[in-house]
């Protein structure tokens, strides 16, 4: 049962109005705003300084040190979270190692991987980095009034969410992969919280075969290596496709990720040769119902025996 809960009202109408922005088209004024902000912000936070915040290291090295201190892990974890290639990461780590700030050794859980942790000196430097970063942020907002600070905080929160949403990767994965199962468990846990009578997901891997090629697909949306949304497509006996297990992490609500994921799954169904897609949901998930209606889905009669489903929808894909 798809559950893109709290989906934002951001889906485009069936036909764009005259002069309305066209989805997927990036306008020069949008690009100019982003570039101007990048130039202004990088200058003011010290990103251009050879010694970031006076710590004796450039921003890239300091950023890696901060990430290790915030959440230590393997080199693979760090590459994924920071989007770095292995060669550049290795060079940064060698500098931190030579300065005695990090310890790199085989991971006890899998000796084919290398685990990175801060040394005692590295933790002291991390604390200094944290303190100086907070001081720089306070200096930036100090000249503003309380109302201006609130506006800035709200604007940056929104900007952060939208920038992260723009860089989310949606990829096909096996429905029994660890990250896929983690997302499905989160989906089940949310339904259990929201449904008055609860929801028992059961085995998260149940029905996985129907979500595998050639007849089905399961996709996972990730940000910095962490799953933030998921959904699948499976074939029905009458030749239609069905969207299943659609979920978006609560921290990502309001950025349009649900609508983007829905469009992606519709494209998957189309590529699998389907002309019609169906889905079911529950009346409790009012945001999901509204999103499906905005996306052009029409109410249809019950087509399955799902005891939790109260609403049934279909959409022509061609």
Please report the total strand number as a whole number.
10
What portion of residues is helical? Answer: 40-55%
What is the succession of H and E elements? HHEHHEEHHEHEEEHEHEE
General form: globular
The N- to C-terminal Cα distance equals 23 Å
**Low-confidence segments:** 1-23
Structural Rg: 23 Å
Q: What's the rounded overall pLDDT mean?
A: 88
Helix/strand/pairing category: alpha+beta
What is the number of helical segments per DSSP (H or I, 4+ residues)? 9
How would a textbook summarize the main sheet?
7 strands, mixed
Largest sheet strand order = 4-5-6-7-8-10-9
Assess the beta-strand content as a share of residues: 15-25%
Report what the structure shows.
The protein has 318 residues and is α+β, with helices and mostly antiparallel strands. Helices cover 42% and strands 19% of the residues. The protein is built from 9 helices and 10 strands. The strands form 2 sheets. It has a 7-stranded mixed β-sheet with strand order 4-5-6-7-8-10-9, sandwiched between helices. α2 packs across α4. The longest helix is centred in the middle third of the chain and has 22 residues. 25% of the residues are buried.
List the helices and strands and how they pair.
Blueprint: H1 28-44, H2 59-70, E1 73-74, H3 75-82, H4 86-98, E2 102-107, E3 110-118, H5 120-141, H6 146-166, E4 169-172, H7 178-194, E5 217-223, E6 226-235, E7 241-248, H8 257-271, E8 276-281, H9 286-294, E9 298-299, E10 311-316
Parallel strand pairs: 7-8
Antiparallel strand pairs: 1-3, 2-3, 4-5, 5-6, 6-7, 8-10, 9-10
Helix pairs in contact: 2-4, 2-5
